[in-house]
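Hi support team,

I've been running sequence recovery on a batch of backbones for a student project. Most finish fine, but this one hangs at about 90% for roughly twenty minutes before it completes. I'm not sure whether the input is malformed or the queue is just slow. I've pasted the structure tokens below so you can try to reproduce it. Let me know if you need the job ID as well.

Thanks,
M.K.
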């Protein structure tokens, strides 16, 4: 029991020490600047776009000559509330590309697989099961476009998401 009390006393003393230093920092310009940096910098470093890996792999496959498919291609200018269904559509179509690459033994099969796996993981972390607006289209309602146009649209949507 004595150890527990010592621990509480130590924690309280640390609390008082840190608390007094924190308020001292607030009293001058350099302190405010330091607090701002401490709050902002970790957010920007850790807050890089969750789609960055997907974007990198899309750049790898966009010039692939082995992939010759027509895919439902969502509009890049959809409403913000339709963003998750749009992303879901692109990743569903990437599953088609995965199957196509496995059949044809594409040179970029691993990159395509990476896109699909990373996208699936990111979408599951997003509001995947969120309710979508009635005005959002189903994937099959979009126009079918060739692989190159599909990738260009996909890149635009992800870049907009990363801003």
């Amino acid at each position: 029991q004595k150890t527990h009390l010592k621990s509480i006393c130590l924690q309280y003393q640390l609390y008082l020490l840190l608390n007094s230093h924190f308020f001292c920092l607030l009293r001058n310009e350099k302190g405010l600047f330091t607090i701002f940096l401490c709050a902002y910098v970790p957010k920007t470093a850790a807050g890089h776009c969750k789609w960055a890996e997907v974007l990198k792999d899309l750049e790898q496959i966009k010039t692939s000559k082995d992939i010759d498919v027509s895919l439902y291609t969502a509009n890049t200018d959809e409403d913000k509330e339709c963003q998750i269904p749009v992303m879901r559509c692109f990743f569903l179509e990437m599953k088609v590309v995965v199957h196509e690459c496995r059949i044809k033994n594409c040179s970029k099969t691993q990159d395509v697989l990476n896109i699909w796996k990373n996208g699936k993981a990111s979408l599951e972390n997003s509001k995947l099961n969120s309710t979508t607006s009635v005005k959002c289209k189903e994937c099959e309602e979009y126009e079918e476009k060739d692989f190159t146009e599909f990738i260009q649209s996909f890149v635009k949507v992800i870049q907009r998401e990363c801003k």
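--
Follow-up from support: It reproduced on our side and the slowdown came from queue contention, not your input. Residues 1-40 form one domain. No action needed from you.
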